[in-house]
Design brief:
The protein is mainly beta. The protein has one helix and eleven strands; from the N terminus they run βββαββββββββ.
């Protein structure tokens, strides 16, 4: 059974930094890469960043709201992905979820595997 476990969330003041980590069991980020989403109450889940498989090109894409501040990366040896968040703003407060695309002969982002989430709270 695939399991994605996030860690590294917490409370930080605006302008501060946090790094989230996601460890996978029975899943290999090497195959399809991974992603980070976030969600706040009464809002839809938002894709924050995605990184493609290191076997492909390991390219990263970001939501406009976090470009230049967040960095997604992966460690294929540790089978983990990370989200480095700098210059945090109050509006970055959310539950952050690690995600892994499903492989069905090809990688699909539909119904991605999701972790349980980790809370990030940014105060001014």
């Amino acid at each position: 059974q695939v399991q994605l476990v996030e860690s590294g969330g917490g409370s930080v003041q605006a302008g501060g930094s946090l790094q989230l980590s996601c460890e996978a069991s029975h899943y290999q980020f090497l195959v399809c890469g991974g992603a980070w989403y976030r969600q706040t109450p009464n809002k839809e889940r938002e894709l924050v960043a995605r990184i493609t498989s290191a076997q492909r090109d390991g390219a990263a894409t970001y939501a406009d709201s976090v470009k230049g501040r967040f960095t997604i990366s992966q460690d294929t040896r540790q089978n983990e992905i990370y989200l480095r968040m700098n210059d945090l703003k109050r509006e970055d407060s959310a539950v952050y979820y690690c995600a892994g695309p499903r492989f069905i002969g090809y990688c699909t982002y539909e119904n991605e595997y999701m972790g349980q989430g980790t809370q990030v709270t940014v105060s001014s």
